[in-house]
Write a structure and sequence with these properties.
Chain A is an alpha/beta fold and 165 residues long. Chain A has helices at 6-18, 30-33, 60-73, 95-104, and strands at residues 36-42, 45-50, 77-82, 106-107, 135-139, 147-152, 158-162. In chain A, the strands form two sheets. Chain A has a four-stranded mixed sheet with strand order 4-7-6-5. In chain A, helix 1 crosses helix 3.
């Protein structure tokens, strides 16, 4: 990567960083999830800014290392920066990301995140396998911090739901 | 602007609450009554411990003496921990664990909500994550308190016993240390006292559905914010600090 024009260089670095898959949900990339905020250059160093999904998400460090490694392998000098503000929300998951999640068997977050104040608000989650709305929540908490467990009553398939925050 | 010593102490109060409660919840890992609840409690613990890491890291920067999150979490003495007594109380049974969580989260959800208006950008960032997580903690623990309170005769009896046992420790949630007061005045952290009404409304609403009564507390328990802890605290720290004390400076 010796003599690319500044814009090309930034676009290429973004492409490289954006293609890194999430370690716990490998069907989507860090860009699909919206946790890669941007890639900027400070001198010759590509700085990728990353927002964690949950405060205690154990994958955050792995994600940062994977992005840095991808950039280094593409020939960039690189580092990552963790940003907390503004806080990540499931609204940042792209349309493409939502489709990929569904195809993978994970129901994508249902609506905007403005419902957090509703203490006992129930949301209707459609089964990612058969599409039925006849589903039930098994547990608010699932295999990772960002998912809940559901079961489809129509096709009897258990599935993960990507929680809306 | 509050002095950095005040901000440091107030941040340590917040981080210690989260670390110690997170540690308590993690003690359920592999031992919860059902698999789903095992996952749930581990996830709640993860939120709290992850949040404490962010707060400790910032506290270390504010202090400016080069201490990082590990130094602050693992290398202090018992009297230097400023968590309230509520969070160090033992898990005992499921009723007590869930009630402790409800009491804590019912304050911290509006606390972080108010902290979104802080004039400190780092605190706003930490609050933005925590406020959403605390909403889940309130919902999950409230569902259990209602299910057990309005459950069988035995579960109702245990739930009401937990209320009598734990309620005297809730007053300290609203204690404003001098450091916390200075930060509230400076606009960097919320005033806990101003959130009491909202906390009381949440608890009253859950208790009504759970058929529980709010007891009259004659002798509120406090001391944690001054570093005076109960017997359980030493046991927690023994387990929490063992590896760093045995192999100082150990890293992954």
């Amino acid at each position: 990567m010796v003599s690319l024009a500044t814009n090309d260089r930034a676009a290429l670095a973004w492409e490289v960083a954006a293609s890194v898959p999430d370690p716990e949900v490998p069907c989507v990339t860090v860009a699909d999830l919206g946790i890669l905020r941007d890639v900027r250059f400070e001198g010759d160093v590509a700085v990728a800014r990353v927002t964690p999904t949950y405060s205690g998400c154990p994958a955050t460090l792995a994600i940062e290392l994977a992005i840095e490694t991808a950039l280094l392998e593409a020939g960039f000098q690189a580092r990552t920066e963790r940003v907390f503000s503004p806080a990540w929300t499931t609204d940042w998951i792209t349309e493409e990301g939502r489709e990929k999640l569904r195809a993978y068997g994970i129901a994508p977050p249902v609506s905007g995140s403005n419902s957090i104040r509703a203490l006992f608000g129930e949301t209707v989650v459609a089964c990612p396998k058969c599409g039925s709305d006849d589903t039930e929540k098994l547990s608010e908490f699932g295999s990772t911090a960002c998912k809940a467990q559901y079961r489809c009553i129509a096709c009897r398939e258990p599935f993960d739901y990507f929680k809306c925050i | 602007m509050a002095g950095s010593a005040d901000l440091f102490a107030a941040l340590i109060e917040l981080a210690d609450d989260q670390l110690i409660l997170g540690h308590r919840l993690s003690e359920w890992s592999g031992r919860a009554p059902i698999l789903e609840e095992d996952l749930a409690l581990s996830n709640l613990a993860l939120d709290l411990i992850g949040g404490s890491r962010n707060i400790y890291t910032y506290a270390g920067l504010v202090e400016g003496k080069g201490r990082d999150e590990d130094d602050l979490a693992y290398m202090r003495l018992e009297r230097e921990y400023l968590n309230c007594l509520l969070v160090e109380r033992g898990n005992d049974d499921f009723a007590q664990t869930m009630l402790r969580q409800l009491y804590f989260a019912a304050l911290m959800q509006p606390y972080w909500q108010a902290a979104l208006a802080s004039n400190d950008e780092t605190i706003r960032g930490i609050a933005g994550k925590a406020v959403k997580e605390m909403a889940y903690h309130v919902r999950h623990s409230a569902e259990w308190v209602i299910r057990l309170g309005d459950g069988t005769a035995q579960s109702a009896e245990k739930m009401q016993a937990a209320v009598v046992e734990m309620h005297p420790f809730t007053e300290e949630l609203f204690t404003m240390s001098e450091a916390a007061r200075a930060c509230a005045k400076a606009g960097s952290l919320p005033d806990r006292e101003s959130l009491r009404a909202e906390w009381s409304r949440t608890i009253a609403s859950v208790f009504e559905q759970a058929l529980l009564t709010v007891p009259e507390v004659r002798f509120p328990q406090s001391g944690g914010r001054q570093g005076r802890h109960g017997e359980e605290m030493g046991h927690i720290l023994a387990e929490l600090q063992y590896v760093q004390r045995t192999h100082p400076g150990l890293t992954w």
